[in-house]
Amino acid sequence: MGEFGLIARVTAKFSTTEDVILGPGDDAALVRARDRRVVATTDLLVEGRHFRRDWSSARDVGHKAVAQNFADVAAMGARPTALLIGLAAPPDLPVAWADAFTEGVGAECAIAGGAVVGGDIVRSDTLTVSITALGDLGGHRAIRRDGARPGDVVAVAGSLGLSAAGLCLLRAGLDGPQECLREHRRPRPPYAQGLKAARLGATAMLDVSDGLVQDLGHIARSSRVAIRLDSSALVPAPAIDEAVSLLAAAGEDRRDALGFLLTGGEDHALAATFPPDTRLPDAWTRIGVVASGAGVFVDGRTVPPHGWDHFE
Amino acid sequence: MGEFGLIARVTAKFSTTEDVILGPGDDAALVRARDRRVVATTDLLVEGRHFRRDWSSARDVGHKAVAQNFADVAAMGARPTALLIGLAAPPDLPVAWADAFTEGVGAECAIAGGAVVGGDIVRSDTLTVSITALGDLGGHRAIRRDGARPGDVVAVAGSLGLSAAGLCLLRAGLDGPQECLREHRRPRPPYAQGLKAARLGATAMLDVSDGLVQDLGHIARSSRVAIRLDSSALVPAPAIDEAVSLLAAAGEDRRDALGFLLTGGEDHALAATFPPDTRLPDAWTRIGVVASGAGVFVDGRTVPPHGWDHFE
Q: What pLDDT digit, counting tens, does each position of B102-151 carry?
């Protein structure tokens, strides 16, 4: 199947939304930007580095590529609107893989509320996915990383550590607990909480992609503050404790549940700071406070910027 | 150099514009969309398929990646505003290559009037560039491919055939004429003519990336019209005639100048249709007319959709 055939197959699958004025098929797409601004972010995913075809289905890869980008949009306090997708595919990539990947992309777009408006398909020896996501702030200010103030509350929405535990399990050749594997394959960013956090007055926000401590370090540095986490507020999901036991039984005994929560990325939870008197809805868990100073602390101990693993 | 170091080096080089509210460094960028709509397009470029490091400098590749995307923006009748760039780089890619590539990206952005607002750098065995370009229609309607009407004039702005001749010369191991090689390495889309064509009332427009006949075929099909080209209006640049002579002397005697003009893509000229009474400025050359029917004709002969080469 040539590029034009695949493009036609692929674009025929995507549904549209009210944000799309002109979808795929012309030189460029045309997307509504209702408040005269557009949020934009891009990522590249490379097989072997960001996903493995034996660990994730094509549909999983489609879901995850979209999720990680729309999570970035949500982390600005914006609503996902549109997606542009590039696929560099080896000549021997099964058409069924491309089809299932496309279905995953479309399904995650439907979950996040965005639409696929454009793309490109090319040949390459290395299976590579590029994603650009657009979003709409709905007239609100963007929630950046540099607005946290001493006294603010630190809170997270979404899951932490499940994806990292899932990756460890896959690396160890273990096939459960399913909740960890599922989160690694198809993270579920709490998209709607981005906009909600903005409306609640969040002072800084990001999505947890590299690990909670490392990512909060970005807020601490940008905002010139310290962040003090309380590990008792970081309660691992039961599946993480189960994963730690299974990993220990398999000889991977250096892993602990708190480590997964503090350093595991890719769940794409949202982490934000809020003014001290903010009434946080149930979706948000308070995990610490912003203080004057610098750095990220867990139970009063400093965590070096290169992360929890080295700290232990 | 790690990813963070390279990202810092790379983003430090880009200058900003009035369209940028928030540039690289946060979860996502924030770009002005003054008329409540944003034009968006994306491309993937893969080493060996879309560029060769021995034929094009890193700076050339940066220029060309940006040019082909902002040409798509211009072809909608829009003004380039912002660019997101992904670089998948092998571990042994010289830092000097990444630096020069980045300089090329920045320089072409300056030519087109856009700014780099975001990006991603990852490791990959295959050197790959992803580009997403955004643009602003300034309140005008988008010029699509489906608006050509019988009686309209067909015209082009920018060069045709030089890039294809340049590619042939490189393949034949010839190192001149420089004008052809230069256009292949750094195409110069007539960005400003996109907006100008929209203001002149263009009924359809695209950028010539796959070849004039093939691309006009998209307008013919989308608009359900025929396009009749007059080959006497397609005057090759002297460098193309020179290239044909050099290629013939090197044994490549199947090439003719008109073939390069009709099938050569990658100059990223703009091709558009205008109402019959439009006074075209000097930048535009009238090359044919729109008629009722279907297909693309040159001097009254049909050209099959797979192009001039097969037609000959």
A: 999 999 999 999 999 998 999 999 999 999 999 999 999 999 999 999 99
Q: Do A124 and B49 touch (CB under 8 A)?
A: yes
Q: Do A106 and A172 have their domain in common?
A: no
B26 CA: distance to closest CA in chain A (Å): 7
- Distance, in Å, from the CA atom of A288 to the CA atom of A272, rounded to the nearest integer, reads 10
Q: What does the alpha-carbon distance between residue A307 and residue B133 come to, in Å, rounded to a whole number? A: 35
Range of the domain at B300: 153-311
Q: Are A17 and A114 in contact (CB under 8 A)?
A: yes
Q: Is A137–B30 a contact, with Cβ atoms under 8 angstroms apart?
A: yes
We report the CATH number of the domain holding residue B205 as 3.90.650.10
ipTM of the complex: 0.93
HSE (CB half, 13 Å, CA atoms) of B223? 31
On whether the CB atoms of residues A209 and A266 are closer than 8 A, the answer is yes
Interface of B with A in 166-225 (CB under 8 A): 205-207
List the structure tokens of B5: 């170091």
pLDDT for position B304: 60
Q: What is the pLDDT of residues A52-109, one digit of tens each?
A: 999 999 999 999 999 999 999 999 999 999 999 999 999 999 989 999 999 999 999 9
Residue B145 lies in a domain: no
Helix axes B162-171, B178-185, angle to 10 degrees: 100
Residue of B nearest to A271 (CA): B27
Please check whether residue A208 lies inside any domain of the structure.
yes
Do B134 and A38 make contact, defined as CB atoms within 8 angstroms?
yes
In Å, the largest CA–CA distance within chain B is 59
Residues in A 61-90 with any Cβ partner in B closer than 8 A: 72-73, 75-76, 78, 82, 84-88
Average pLDDT, chain B: 92
Task: State whether B130 and A42 contact (CB < 8 Å).
Answer: yes
The reply to whether B19 and B116 lie within a common domain is yes
